[in-house]
Design goal:
The protein is of the alpha/beta class. It contains 23 helices and 18 strands. Strands 3-2-1-6-5-4 form a 6-stranded antiparallel β-sheet, sandwiched between helices. A 5-stranded mixed β-sheet has the order 8-10-11-13-12, with helices on one face. The termini are far apart. The N terminus is likely disordered. The structure holds adenosine-5'-diphosphate. Adenosine-5'-diphosphate (ADP) binds next to α9, α10 and α11.
Length: about 675
């Protein structure tokens, strides 16, 4: 390059043209250099760009001439930035107007040591006009450090946020895991309390139960909090009855208020909308938290819950809820910290009343998610009023759940599907106490197999199972022929949000019970569904119940036999049967490996070969699986594929019967 040979020029002062310019002012240059800045001037007439000495030092060419043609100056700049800088300079030179405005751009320059330096070039517009020329002037600032710092900061922030999210996810997982054994403790203690116990033992067992409940409350808070923090908490948007949700929160806290001798009142405004859309579970949670706090921090007097409409517009109601207590109140200085994480107003209070200081933080997060506001007014010694305001769309579809028919009955064989021993033992114990027998399996696959072989009156299905999950297993059971495919399936789940309920409604699952298991609720649900059992007599696996023509279209086989002869058709059938057994096995393997591509291929062939022999059921299954794999709907694909095994058995049995070589009966 020629730059170097042109180098060793004089500094701006020596290079000065006879007329005075800004860059002739060494004092300014020195002052600017202290701020990592240099003056730039460009005289288009003379085609000279002059930049102060600090710049040359910054780009690692201190020996370089301060004055050079524009093209050479631009040649120093990274190719990507060259066009912008050139346009900006030329634009300034050509500017005819008078309105003053500064323009700037960022450029990168690579030093001879291969460091990338970043500069901001800011030009003043219009420049200086002389009789013969128009001088473009500006400042070049070294922004390398500032940008590096900013990038480091962004990176550090991203790292910190990532670590924080990872931590929250970890906490969410752990607290979820903790709930399972606590669930066992609570359930088993409940059972224990129902047995004959001495006074002292009863007292011990009650203490275990209360402690378990307290532990569960804390873990639930932590879980919610961690979910909010890691962005895992999503709100639902479904229709629900607003007054009922508030009333249920009040009902759930009534006993505690009564035990403390407090009045707990729910005063809904007459204009409160009945049906709204939103997340009833989360709304109830906020109310429960605030009402529980009010009861906790009030020793005498009352707690009043109010709800009213602030505004109604376009069928959206802005609602305000207030929870007023006559309790200890909160000092002014503590108010700002109140809704922050892990903050209790006063550690001595925490010790007296207990708590994690997470409740209000969770409330705030939830109300924030609902795009609402939350706050408090309080006077020490007189009481507090916590309030929150949210906007909810009014109206919505009426919710109805399919209702079972049938009277409660005992002695129903129940299939319990749960991979957690504590849970399954608890379920078995509860079922036994109700007079039902039960078998336990621990995977979705085994559940489908058991449902195929046995004749159960009810399936209690854990939703989170390894491999085939609860929904898929339920779908596969539904695909079983005859009564076996109609067995009521009740999901046992830790998180049944309204969305989950909605999902159940659209899935093969009939109902659900929540973990931790509430004995009364459990008993009711089991009674409801066990009542639909019509007794043993469901067909055995080797005696297909579906009418044969659902499985085989004999007309197709006959047509084929008429065309290619009975013998040939029979051979085709034999070939198909052997092939089907292998294919079913391959599909099972693909299913276990969750290999959608393999499944798709097998489904395609299954459809083709079954279609040509008139094997209706397998043809339909092949078509469904293929459709699901094409749509990328893995769940549906796998669930449908799980039904191929049983359908293949039925088909083989029916084929043996329909073999064209067999003399007609
Ligand atoms: P905790 O689980 O500790 O109760 P919260 O976040 O629910 O956590 O509450 C934080 C703190 O706010 C409490 O420890 C208490 O000091 C104060 N507080 C909350 N509600 C009330 C209330 N109704 N009256 C007085 N103090 C309250």
């Amino acid at each position: 390059m020629s730059e170097r040979s042109r180098g060793r020029g004089a500094g701006p002062a020596d290079a000065a043209a006879p007329s005075a310019t800004l860059s002739d002012a060494p004092l300014y240059e020195r002052a600017l250099a202290a701020a990592q800045q240099s003056i730039l001037e460009w005289r288009p007439g003379a085609d000279r760009v002059t930049v102060g000495p600090a710049f040359w030092a910054q780009i690692g060419r201190p020996e370089f001439g301060p004055s050079l043609p524009l093209a050479d100056f631009l040649g120093l700049v990274a190719a990507d930035d060259r066009v912008d800088l050139g346009e900006m300079l030329r634009g300034c030179a050509a500017y005819e107007g008078d309105s003053a405005a500064d323009v700037s751009t960022s450029v990168r320059i690579v030093t001879p040591q291969s460091d990338v330096r970043e500069f901001t070039v800011a030009l003043s517009r219009p420049g200086v006009r002389t009789a013969s020329d128009r001088i473009v002037v500006g400042i070049v600032s070294d922004a390398t450090e500032a940008r590096r710092l900013r990038r480091d900061l962004v990176e550090a922030r991203n790292l910190a946020e990532g670590a924080n999210r990872a931590k929250s996810e970890f906490i969410a997982t752990i607290s979820h895991e903790i709930r399972t054994p606590v669930n066992g403790i609570l359930g088993m203690t409940g059972l224990l309390l129902d047995t004959k116990l001495g006074d002292e033992q009863r007292d011990f067992a009650r203490t275990v139960q209360e402690s378990g409940q307290a532990l569960l409350d804390i873990v639930t808070d932590i879980l919610d909090f961690a979910k909010v923090e890691s962005g895992k908490l999503e709100l639902e948007q479904i229709a629900f009855e607003l007054p009922e949700v508030v009333a249920s929160a009040v009902r759930m806290t009534e006993a505690r208020a009564r035990a403390k001798g407090l009045d707990l009142l729910w005063q809904p405004d007459a204009k409160l909308p009945r049906e709204v859309q939103g997340d009833p579970g989360r709304l109830r949670q906020v109310l429960l938290n605030l009402i529980s706090n009010a009861i906790k921090f009030t020793d005498k007097g009352r707690v009043v819950v109010r709800g009213r409409v602030l505004q109604r517009k376009n069928r959206v109601a802005r609602l305000r809820f207030e929870i007023e207590d006559t309790g200890i109140g909160i000092g002014e200085s503590a108010l700002p910290k109140l809704f922050q994480k892990f903050s209790q107003v006063d550690s001595s209070i925490a010790r007296r009343y207990g708590g994690t200081g997470l409740g209000l933080a969770v409330c705030k997060s939830l109300v924030d998610l609902m795009a609402g506001d939350i706050g408090v007014e309080s006077t020490v010694g007189q009481g507090s009023t916590f309030w929150f305001e949210i906007a909810l769309p009014e109206g919505g579809a009426k919710l109805d759940r399919p209702q079972p028919t049938g009277a409660p009955r005992a002695g129903v064989p129940v299939l319990v599907v749960d991979d957690n021993q504590v849970n399954s033992r608890l379920l078995v114990a509860l079922l036994t106490r109700m007079g039902h027998s039960s078998d336990v399996v621990d995977t979705g696959w085994k559940a489908v197999e058991a449902a195929r072989q046995g004749s159960y009156g009810l399936v209690m299905m854990d939703v989170q199972l390894p491999g085939l999950d609860g929904y898929e297993a339920a779908a596969a059971i539904r695909a079983l022929p005859g009564k076996r495919g109609e067995v009521p399936i009740v999901a046992v789940t830790a998180d049944a949000t309204e969305g989950d309920r909605e999902r159940y409604r659209h899935s093969a699952i009939n109902d659900f019970v929540l973990k931790p298991i509430d004995t009364n609720e459990f008993t009711n649900v089991v009674k409801r569904w066990a009542g639909t059992w019509v007794g043993r007599g469901a067909p055995r696996a080797d005696a297909p119940s579906a009418p044969a023509d659902e499985i085989i279209d004999r007309a197709v086989l006959s047509a084929l036999a008429a065309r290619i002869g009975i013998q040939k058709t029979g051979e085709l059938v034999d070939l198909y049967m052997t092939d089907l057994k292998e294919r079913t096995e391959r599909m099972r393997v693909a299913l276990e490996a969750r290999d959608m591509n393999a499944l798709h291929r097998e489904a395609h062939d299954l459809k083709g070969t079954s279609g040509s022999l008139g094997l209706t059921r397998l043809f339909a299954l092949g078509e469904d699986i293929q459709g699901a794999t094409q749509d990328g709907n893995e769940k549906l694909a796998f669930a449908t594929a799980a039904a191929v095994g049983p359908a293949a058995e039925l088909t083989i049995a029916a084929l043996a019967d329909a073999d064209p070589r067999k003399p007609p009966s």
